[in-house]
Every structure is written in structure tokens, then in C-alpha cells.
Amino acid sequence: MVQSIELFAPIALCVKNDVQAFIHHATSVETRLIRSQLHTVSGRQSTPNNVKAPSDKKQDDKQSQAEKVFEKIKTMAGQWVATKGEQKGQVTFDVIAGGSAVVEREFPGTPQEMITVFHLDGNTVRVNHYCMLGNQPRYKAKFADKGTSIVFEFDGVTNLSSKDAAHMHEGKLTFTDPDNLKSTWVMFKDGKRAEEHSFEVTRKK
Predict the structure, then answer these.
(1) Which CATH number is 68-203 given?
(2) 3-state DSSP: the chain helix, strand, coil percent, rounded to 5?
């Protein structure tokens, strides 16, 4: 019996050593894993809470730019008179809905009367034009020419009889001074530029 115990003693010792080695290895792996996770968390928190990420700052810049465009449009509130160009008559701008929208009425009371509505939508200025052509183009308004102009970029249209039907595809307001501006609209037909219409207006005092 003693001989049997002595015979198996080396085997038991080897098993014990293997178990201890396994436990040591597992503990080492777990320690490295915890350290790695702590390092990752630490890296995520390396940016102070009061410092915005680049994507957030870019979003804020767009918001600020849109607000500036909309405030510029609001300065046009009042009555204007078309003095030069294809159309003659009145143009009015009214700030409505608690200052959240601006309505432009071109040549009110005439067969050419049209309405354009401007409003903010997050970091974009939306423009909806109700045209005498019977369709309703939509645009996004942005500054151009170092802030002396506002351009209207096409953003879709409703009630278009076909994709090639005529519609006002883009527009532009150019500010000569606070009391004078030029309005230019480009008509598209058959999917391409067809006509340009413009007129100049002066603020009525």
C-alpha cells in the first residue's frame, strides 16, 4: 500500500503543478483584460465634458449659419415696389407665427400673384414657393457671394405634371443695400435650364 502511494506521488505532484499553472495563467489573462477595459474607458473620458466633439461643433456652425440666413430674410419685412425688370408692382414680406416664418407675396391682387414661405427647420432654412405655374417647388436657402446674396437650392417639387414639366428650379436674392434687392429665378424645362426671370425691388417708405 505504501509503495502504491509512493508510485502515484509524482503524478499527483505534476497534476498539482499543472493546476496551479493554469490558475496563474487564467488570473494573468483576466488581469490583462480588466486593464484593457479600464484603458478603453479612460480613453473615452479623456475629452473633457465641456469640450464638444468636432461633429457637434460642425452641427452648431450649420445651425448658426441657418439662423443668420433666416434673420436676414426677416429684415426684408415690409412693402417693396418692383421698379425694374419683367414685372412691375408690389412685393410684400410679412413675419408671422411668432417670428418663426416669413411670407413673401409677389404682385398681390394680380394674375401673377405668388406666395413664398420661409422658415427654419433645424440647421436648414426651408423655402416653399407657390408658383403661378401650378406647382410648388421647395428649396434650401443659403448665403452666397460672401453674404451679399441668398441662393435657393432645389429640394423637390409637388404637383408637377411630369418630370420634364416647367418649374422654377432655383432662385437668388441679391442685396444691393438694405432698401434695394434683385430677385432672380431660373426655370427648368425638359430637365434643363430654359429661362431666367429677374426683377429689382425698392423698399417702400
Answers:
(1) 2.40.128.20
(2) 35, 45, 20
> Cell numbers at residue 180, please?
434695394
- Cα distances from 179 to residues 123, 130, 149, in angstroms, run 27, 25, 14
User: Which H helix or E strand runs over 82?
Assistant: strand 78-85
DSSP state of 126: E
Three-class DSSP labels, 84-112: EECCCEEEEEEEEHHHCEEEEEECCCCCC
Nearest to 114 by CA among 130, 128, 103, 136: 130
pTM (2 d.p.): 0.70
**Residue tagged 484603458 (cell numbers):** 39
Domain boundaries, the chain: 2-46, 68-203
Residue 109 grid cell? 391682387
φ and ψ at residue 104, rounded to 5 degrees: -105, 130
- Rg from Cα positions in the chain: 35
Q: How far apart are CA 163 and CA 152, in angstroms?
A: 20
- Distance of alpha carbon 107 from alpha carbon 165, whole angstroms: 24
Which class for 146: exposed (0-12), middle (13-18), buried (19 or more C-beta within 10 A)? exposed
Alpha-carbon distances of 104 from 87, 144, 200, rounded to whole Å: 15, 20, 15
**50-106, pLDDT tens digit by residue?**
555 666 666 677 779 999 999 999 999 999 999 887 777 899 999 999 999 999 999
